[in-house]
Design brief:
The structure holds two protein chains of two kinds.
Chain A lengths: L5 H17 L5 H6 L7 H8 L3 H25 L8 H19 L4 E2 L4 E4 L2 E3 L10 H15 L5 H12 L10 H21 L5 H30 L1 H7 L2 H7 L1
Antiparallel strand pairs in A: 1-2, 2-3
Helix pairs in contact in A: 1-4, 1-7, 1-8, 4-5, 5-7, 5-9, 6-9, 7-8, 9-10
Chain B lengths: L4 H8 L4
């Protein structure tokens, strides 16, 4: 592992937390103002009766919006823009949706099992028209288990950066450089967990989340391919170009 | 590069 001074770790924590807050799409205060308003039954039914392809398109648009914020987050992480452009693309292609899932716990209401979506809080039943009940259940379960860790914004920021800077992604050209950066971020995460007096198990729990995230993302890709096989023209003409670049 | 045109563009835009 690289030797990093305490001052350097503090600086990294500061930079990454700031980047996270500047790019997190919704501030906690804003979410509170939305007053955790849930969709009413007839609104839920309206989503459920949308044609499958319309609901897919809506979700693709929402995911793409969230991903644009993650790209901004990545750009502000110390060292990310110093990587070669191939590796920047590789890391974002593999990790941006994972970070969206991590960030989801900020807009998730564990008590009601709802997530902020399209203006209100939505339960899994809102997404029924997608025809991916198993994936939706897993995404909600993941958000719930992330919430149960009660991470602070600092911890969430560093964990997001750790996920994004995964050195084991395929097709990296300068793996060693990514590895160094990820190790530094891990040290900063450990530093913050220690400072916040979190119990020892939290880091291990977060490590388990990394494999859960990979599984969620590969299942998203599978569902997309199945959808595309039936509706190739909808994907080609109606899905956001960035979404197609990332998952096509 | 052509394959990831938008991502390239987003990365090149200066951070606001």
């Amino acid at each position: 592992p690289p030797t990093v001074s305490m001052a350097e770790l503090d600086h990294l924590v500061q930079i990454i937390s700031k980047s996270h807050l500047e790019t997190c799409q919704y501030l906690r205060e804003e979410l509170q103002q939305m007053s955790w308003q849930n969709f009413l039954q007839d609104e839920v039914e309206r989503y459920q009766s949308k044609p499958r392809e319309v609901m897919w398109q809506l979700c693709a648009v929402k995911i793409t919006e969230a991903i644009q914020y993650v790209v901004e987050f990545a750009k502000r992480i110390d060292g990310f823009m110093d990587l070669c452009q191939n590796d920047q693309i590789v890391l974002l292609k593999a990790g941006s949706l994972e970070v969206v899932f991590v960030r989801m716990c900020r807009v998730f209401d564990s008590q009601n099992n709802t997530v902020y979506f399209d203006g209100k809080f939505a339960g899994p039943d809102v997404f029924k028209a997608l025809g991916c009940d198993d994936l939706i259940t897993s995404v909600f379960d993941f958000a719930k288990s992330m919430c149960s860790l009660h991470l602070t914004e600092d911890e969430l920021a560093l964990f997001s950066a750790f996920v994004l800077l995964s050195a084991d992604r395929s097709w990296l050209q300068e793996k060693l450089q990514v590895e160094k950066l990820q190790q530094k971020i891990q040290l900063a995460l450990q530093h913050v967990l220690q400072k916040n007096q979190r119990e020892d198990g939290v880091l291990n729990k977060l490590r388990c989340k990394v494999s859960a995230l990979r599984s969620l993302c590969s299942r998203h890709t599978e569902k997309l391919s199945a959808f595309r096989a039936i509706y190739p023209d909808i994907v080609r003409t109606h899905f956001p170009p960035l979404y197609k670049e990332l998952f096509g | 590069k052509e394959k990831h045109k938008i991502l390239h563009q987003l990365l090149q835009n200066s951070t606001s």
